Amino acid sequence: MEKKKVILRQAKRLFAKNGYDGTTMDEIASKSNANKALIYYHFKSKENLYSCILKDSVNAIYDYLINKRDESDNPLEALKIYIEAFFVQAKKDETFIRILMREIASDGIHMSDEIMERFLHVLKILDNIIKQGVNEGVFVKRDAKIVHFIVIGAISYYLSSCLLRKRLSKKFPQNEFLLRDVDNVPLELYEIILKGLKSYG
Amino acid sequence: MEKKKVILRQAKRLFAKNGYDGTTMDEIASKSNANKALIYYHFKSKENLYSCILKDSVNAIYDYLINKRDESDNPLEALKIYIEAFFVQAKKDETFIRILMREIASDGIHMSDEIMERFLHVLKILDNIIKQGVNEGVFVKRDAKIVHFIVIGAISYYLSSCLLRKRLSKKFPQNEFLLRDVDNVPLELYEIILKGLKSYG
Amino acid sequence: MEKKKVILRQAKRLFAKNGYDGTTMDEIASKSNANKALIYYHFKSKENLYSCILKDSVNAIYDYLINKRDESDNPLEALKIYIEAFFVQAKKDETFIRILMREIASDGIHMSDEIMERFLHVLKILDNIIKQGVNEGVFVKRDAKIVHFIVIGAISYYLSSCLLRKRLSKKFPQNEFLLRDVDNVPLELYEIILKGLKSYG
Amino acid sequence: MEKKKVILRQAKRLFAKNGYDGTTMDEIASKSNANKALIYYHFKSKENLYSCILKDSVNAIYDYLINKRDESDNPLEALKIYIEAFFVQAKKDETFIRILMREIASDGIHMSDEIMERFLHVLKILDNIIKQGVNEGVFVKRDAKIVHFIVIGAISYYLSSCLLRKRLSKKFPQNEFLLRDVDNVPLELYEIILKGLKSYG
DNA sequence: AATGAATGAGACTTCATTCAT
DNA sequence: AATGAATGAAGTCTCATTCAT
Is the CB of C24 under 7 A from strand E? Predict the structure, then answer.
């Protein structure tokens, strides 16, 4: 019972780090101190194990965002909350963002319809916020999707490149300033986007 | 001599689509109508083949950006040109952005120091633009890095998700509007960022 | 558990006959009626499989000689026993001598430090016998090492050339007498060496 | 013309060190600074190249021994000359002895009939010496073949183990004395054998 | 005489998966 | 729930050899 969770956790870590094809069942078994056959006992197949992990992650982020959404119906604040929530959740489960990046890079080979739909809902939350803002006249009219690419793209890119930047800044100390962490990413991001969207009147 | 280029092109396509571990030498050989041993004759190993591809791509984008940079020294225009150039080049060589995403997701396992340094230079070009803008008082003071995450993150995410979005919009027609392509990404992106950065008065 | 031993035995036979590079894992698998992957399951690599075999063989001959050594502390008899024991053991495990010859021919590429040390012990047993004999005045003073080269060289050469001589004697019947087996090799050897070493008083 | 000899020399060195299967045509090409196809141009095939080398070596030792044989018809001296000649020639062309050891270990897979016959002649020279000695009453009656195994076995073993012993004596300095070179191998060998064979009277 | 490119066969090794217990 | 042994397919890489020039 406990073992199953350990397997899930370790598998997730490995899938995030090395990708689906770069992760072996042997590695998962060894990192979770489990017999390889036990993984099959619990999860049927590698594909299924991966699928479980993907589903859990998408559900977690969806549930979190849905919860936070209800904290405000003011578009300005809602946008801020959305960005922060996405960031917080993505940081808490850093593996997810890496898995997502790989899925996008491979056109979602491993994503089931169910998972895709759930992910669409995540986007829709942001879309609604922008639309409401435009309707209420607080945002300039602009394709809401571009905001979505900015938010998810920037956060994904920032979070998943943390280790790489750390490594680079050691190797190239003269460019260290380029690679240092940003103080408060969600706030900076929010401020730029907000200023970029806000209609003055 | 021709064959070598064919192999490079096909390998790149496959690495972009399926990742390093998801691509087999057999597949590359078959897609480039080459004998498998010939790939080893020209490229020594899978790792080395991948490395060559990575290097070529990073060099191409670097050269293109360096060229474009010299077209203006006005930070506002330079920013616009940078965004557009990055977008154009990334779109022309769509495979690169996917390879890059995977590399970031795996903390750059396959990136040699040489390649990393070259990639750092790409970032530095943007950093200099922002810094000049802040110095000249046309941009509000803000951590230049966040802009970099927005530009590269959003463009990467947008471009590499094209096919996935197309697939999704067929499967979920009710949400099709969410997934449609944005009319003019670099322009929209530039306008939001510019508005978000510009200092008034 | 049984399979592992079968693999070891068959691998040993093949390595002896065809050398390390001349033996394929496919061949070993087929001769031991085992799946190739099973060999890797039990032995990790070809190199390691070979190493195990080498270690076992050296240990076997060492243990046998150590045991026999204690049967006498008279140098004359001890020398006789050593020669006979080495011969008997080498004949019982004929593969070993061939493997050893190849190892020597290639300067022990595959010999680990551990194995080398064990083999050194084998030499030391003979060395001690000769030295004791010289000290007690029953042997003329002579470099003990030369005796070692005679014993091991002659026995190795004799035993491993058995099949070749048989083949040759069929092909060249007029020289058959040159190639026939010697009646009692260890005894003949012992007598020559003893006579060659003995000091007369 | 020159290249052909370089190829032969380098191939021989490699075959001696790594065996037939352990040596690749690529390696030979690279060590002789020749194009791989050139080796095929000169030698048809790997097997043939090896065969040429084997033949040359056996012929060289045969010619040398035949020459030396005529220097004496006294069995005692002839034996001494034979041992010394075999040793000198084997030392001059150290690769040969290693190749021979491997051939014996693998029952002479690569030895053509022609080469085998020539090698038989080498043995016959020694056989004749011993027989003459027995006939003349200077040697005790003893199977001549055993002397042959002693001479060839001991010399082969001694010469081909030189590097290995050097390596070992560095790794195990406390046993260095066991591994040091013998001062005058052919003399020591001759003296033991002579004393072992001589009939007193 | 000499070479760069090309190839088919096969080598070592790994992997997801299953089975018997 | 848990495990050691076993397997077929496939993956990376090497090798002897040939071809066109």
Answer: yes
